[in-house]
Amino acid sequence: MAERQTGTRRKNGDRRQVILDAAARRFAEFGFEATTVRQIADDVNILSGSLYHHFATKEEMLAEVVRDAVLDQRERALRIAGSAHDAETKFVTLIREELTALAERIEAYAIIFNERKFFRRSPDFLDLMKARKESFEAWRNVLEQGVREGLFHAGIDSYLTISTIMRMLNSGADWYRHEDGSPLDAMADYSLEALTEFYAGFVLRSVRSAERAAEPIPSSVVVA
Question: How many domains does the structure of the chain reveal?
Fold first, then answer.
């Protein structure tokens, strides 16, 4: 009997993940509000009513799709910002790890970015918005550290700088994963490391103090 119950739970868990994968694809491509429960059910060949055995609402599916990505993003930013490295090394590491995560979980992060207005106005997502804010604050703390250390110029607009970086990295991940329709041969000579180096150099040249503009770009580090 115990083996049968374990098998049933595993089957239900597998079905739940299949539904989440289908929902993620729909939400990423068409948007959360434009996607219906019936469409998700059709994608996994079940009746709409059967889907409600796994999820009470469409909002619950959305939360499940993005939660781990949001919490991982916060943990990653806080871990790097709290390390003992100088601000430039932290900044390059933030860019590398963010770009890597975006490329690996493109659908979840596309939803987080595209549905940010919905998340802000929905009380069901206050905890995730708090985590997003903490991620942003970690990036801002690194910028402010760089100013204090004399590595970055004092006139940085933190909000515009971080927002621009996030949009740039999202677009870069789309391009790297061929999600933006770019021809495959345009990607042949680029690795994720090459993209990281390009974006890190581009960003640092815009935030560095004038006397340091031509200095080499530091390597990213592994922060445990």
Answer: 1
* Residue 56 located in a structural domain: no
Alpha-carbon distances of 28 from 22, 66, 112, 191, 209, rounded to whole Å = 10, 11, 9, 24, 39
Question: What is the domain-level CATH number for residue 161?
Answer: 1.10.357.10
**In degrees to the nearest 10, what's the CA dihedral of 198, 204, 210, 216?**
-60
Separation between Cα atoms, residue 200 and residue 219, nearest integer Å: 9
Residues 7-47 have pLDDT tens digits of 444 455 588 999 999 999 999 999 999 999 999 999 999 98
The answer to whether residue 12 sits within a structural domain is no
Look up residue 164 and give its amino acid: T
pTM of the complete model: 0.83
